[in-house]
Specification:
heterodimer; A: alpha+beta; Translation Initiation Factor IF3; 4 strands; about 30% strand; globular; B: alpha/beta; Rossmann fold; 6-stranded antiparallel β-sheet; 5-stranded parallel β-sheet; 12 helices; about 35% helix
Chain lengths: ~80, ~350
Amino acid sequence: MAHYEYDLRGMICPMPVIRTQDRIAELLDGDALEVLCSDPGALHDIPAWCRIHGHSVTNAVHEPEGLIRIQVLVHKP
Amino acid sequence: MVTKRKAVALISGGLDSMLAVRMVQEQGIEVEGINFYTGFCVEGHTHAIRNHDKKKKKRNNALWVAEQLGIKLHIIDVIEEYKDIVINPKHGYGAHLNPCLDCKGFMVRKAEEWRITNNFDFIITGEVVGQRPMSQTAKRMPIVMRESGAGNRLVRPLCARKLEATLPELEGWLDRSKLGEISGRSRKEQIALTRQWGIKDYAQPAGGCCFLTNQQYAAKLQDLWTSRGTREYELDDIMLLKVGRHIRPNADFKLIVCRDDGENNFATGYKNRFISLYANSHEGPLALFDGQASTENLKLAARIVARYGKGKHASVVTVQVSEPRESEGQELNVTPLDTTEMPREWIL
């Protein structure tokens, strides 16, 4: 049950989704991943990707300075 | 026990691939989607860079389609591998710099590799015979089957009955009589299927899903290759071709002039790579300078930047010129370029 952070600032969609997808492939059930992004599109796309793959988004915020934080709880069979 | 067969579908985010998946799902096939990111994809978010497109739905259409269909979607970064397809297409280009036949062969080959690795039974695409002049003709569709290595494990459900039977049909995994026989560019039959299956929302990208089919974009890419003397490119290069007015006054330099705040924000991220210019005496756009920064070229660039700002009728506009990664820079006092001094051919 580890917690990881992944800085994807500066990338525009769909790269943050692709990198999140590839990082989650390396993680274990119950791990938590916090993704930092700058493209507002990630606020829609990463949760959508998580929904279709069965992972939970536990928090998604767009901070005033433009930073986006998305927390994902990984679920694997 | 009957084995549940599995198909991997190429999902573009458009209607045809959505319908193709739905058609095989109706036959009890388990489907997962695959979407390839080449860097040239027309993404909702790319449009969202510009202010006037802010009302467009901020969604990745391929992900959205997958969610509607209840399937998993794997998005694969093929930016590096795809360069060879764009630079050296074996079957040549379409109307612009679109290597459609090579592109389809490449994507189906990648899907075939994925299929084998993940132990799936066949591949499906949303292709319709006769719909696209370069890659989707009865004569050319077999080329994709052959060159991709997928052979008769490649199924085009929407037009399957117009084509030879594939392995899934011959093996009875798919009932051929329930597959489509759509052909041509009319969308009537696809629209009828949306009604039949209650699909109310779907993406209708104007001009397709790839920037390489866009005349203006292709002209900018060709200019990039010509000016550099090489057809190599990086992701940042092709992203910047989607943004701003690209103005080339001479062979030495090109100026990318943003058109609104959305583009200004986007281009700000590139100030560490390019010389940047903006008027600080009047409101105006941010511009990126790509080329040889001689005093003369920078002055001409500053006059162009002044011409696109609120000071375009002023006698003098002060333009800040900053080196990459520098917030401060030199100030140039220039007269905005008059329309008559700027030939149409400068704008790519």
